[in-house]
Amino acid sequence: MPKVETFNRTNVLQKATEVFHKKGYNGTSMQDLVDATDLNRSSIYNSFGSKLGIFMEVLAFYQQGANQNFGKGLAEAYNATDAIEAIFKLTLNDIIGDDDRKGCLIVNCKSEMANQDHTIKSFIEKNQDRMIAMLEDIVSKGQMEKIFNTDQNPNQYALYLYTSIQGLRMTGILNKNEEDLQNIIKTVLKVLY
Amino acid sequence: MPKVETFNRTNVLQKATEVFHKKGYNGTSMQDLVDATDLNRSSIYNSFGSKLGIFMEVLAFYQQGANQNFGKGLAEAYNATDAIEAIFKLTLNDIIGDDDRKGCLIVNCKSEMANQDHTIKSFIEKNQDRMIAMLEDIVSKGQMEKIFNTDQNPNQYALYLYTSIQGLRMTGILNKNEEDLQNIIKTVLKVLY
DNA sequence: GTGTTAATGAAATGATCGTTCCAAAATTAA
DNA sequence: TTAATTTTGGAACGATCATTTCATTAACAC
After folding, report:
1. Does any CB of chain B come closer than 8 Å to the CB of residue A91?
2. Cα–Cα distance between A141 and A145 in angstroms, integer?
3. Position B8 in a domain
4. pLDDT tens-digit profile of B101-128?
């Protein structure tokens, strides 16, 4: 019956993610998206509804990529130490690997929009819940394995680690020295032992 | 000779700061500033040059206010423990006291613009240098007083603390629970002892 | 008071904003 | 091949963007 969507949706989201990541939500125009995706204006609106619509899909796309990375890292971890170090190592690699020093799209989005748009706010709350659940799980296992201390409960340590990751992403925007960043991570994790 | 500037510059910067803080740089329009400051468009351009011009002054104004707060807190500190706790306590109060949960203007600005505008980037680098110098000084004294350990040198600890403060500001945007935030701070500082 | 100078008010600048509209092109079921 | 359906291309929408222009108003030195 109908003509089918011809473009590669993943590819388009990839391109759109790059633009939003580099320029932020308010700094990105529809024209920027048209240029980056090689899609027509109408096609964007037809497929994503609005600027906020495509941005929400971009956020989900970005989050999915990060989750996959974490998943792989955790799969190779033999104990809680490996696991938590994998999380921070992947974050560090993401920081070091980005020559533009854009920071984390989700952290940036939180800073730009969480206090203004309810849809964004609740997306990020869910993202936070997932991150904290993951960290809590690692801490919990580490405490059962007697590798981590029990000075704080897993949820408290998870919120601490989540906070540290956000701080790391912010610092990574201006500090290019890998050794410095590794040192911060070392200090952050020391309290667990 | 000339008619003199009639408006209260501090008052105008105060109002402009509120707007930029709430909506971000790209989210704020010149019309927003006209409405908030009760100044005429021409007067804004006449006195501040451009949107980026007034924003730079807003950043300096905001930074100055924060510095004064830190200064007062540090003046009352008898030792390094008091000092570092004052810094985090003031940060916590700033987070808790803001019902809009806007986060820190400078952290937000870093996330939005540091990778795009060179003037902004260098402002924030200087701000970071000052913050780290202040923290380094506290750590240094604490180590001399034998209150803090010497596992890391003052500069390394300072960067760690700076990173933690940024993380705290990000977490504070969505987490309203003061107890949780205090707990994070406790965990952050534990590594020093 | 007069002359000088700069701040002000209000309108207008061209560019760009996000979004819509509609005819044309393209795809599939029949 | 035809009919049905939806994507596409491109122009256009009104609104808003940051900035400029200029006549008017107000303050100071003399």
Report:
1. no
2. 6
3. no
4. 999 999 999 999 999 999 999 999 999 9
